[in-house]
Amino acid sequence: MNRFLMILMLTCILFSCDIRKNKSKADVVSDSAQAFMDSTTVQMIDTVYDFGKVTDGEKVEYSFRFKNTGKYPLIVSNATASCGCTVPEKPEEPIKPGETGFIKVVFNSQGRVGEAHKEVTVTSNAHPAFPILELKGQVTEAKK
């Protein structure tokens, strides 16, 4: 009889532990679903900018355009470039549904003679995510 009660108690303990694990998994799925529901969509107007030829030392500036096509404000949380010679500037305020926003990028060609291909990665609440933004062209040697 004591053995039966001990087995019954162990079984109850094991099942109660398993239920708590399943509940925490459900909470994680629920949080992920909420984040997905709060996401918005983005339409890129520009994804590649070919600046042609510039002379070594010139700065190239371009603003990539995008439109919030979703139902929620578009929040750009980060914009990073593939190297230190390229500096992106993200919008500080959320882009409201239907509005157009800009990611300004400045490329410093100093010491970058040759083909230039720079990429900018944008992190936001858009789903699907922003595509990689590209800046490309040719940097020619300065005449002396």
Q: Which terms would index this structure?
A:
single chain, Immunoglobulin-like, elongated, 144 residues, four-stranded mixed β-sheet, four-stranded antiparallel β-sheet, alpha+beta
- What is the H/E string? HEEEEEEEE
Strand order of the largest sheet: 1-3-6-5
Structural class: alpha+beta
Inertia-based shape? elongated
User: What is the straight-line distance between the termini?
Assistant: 100 Å
So, the CATH homologous superfamily of the domain at 42-140? Immunoglobulins
General description of the model:
The chain is α+β, with helices and mostly antiparallel strands and 144 residues long. The protein has a domain at 42-140: Immunoglobulins (Immunoglobulin-like, Sandwich). Helices cover 25% and strands 41% of the residues. The chain has one helix at residues 2-37; strands spanning 42-44, 48-55, 59-68, 76-81, 86-89, 100-108, 114-124, 133-140. The strands form two sheets. The protein has a four-stranded antiparallel beta sheet with strand order 1-3-6-5, with no helix packed on it.
List the helices and strands and how they pair.
Elements: H1 2-37, E1 42-44, E2 48-55, E3 59-68, E4 76-81, E5 86-89, E6 100-108, E7 114-124, E8 133-140
Parallel strand pairs: 2-8
Antiparallel strand pairs: 1-3, 3-6, 4-7, 5-6, 7-8
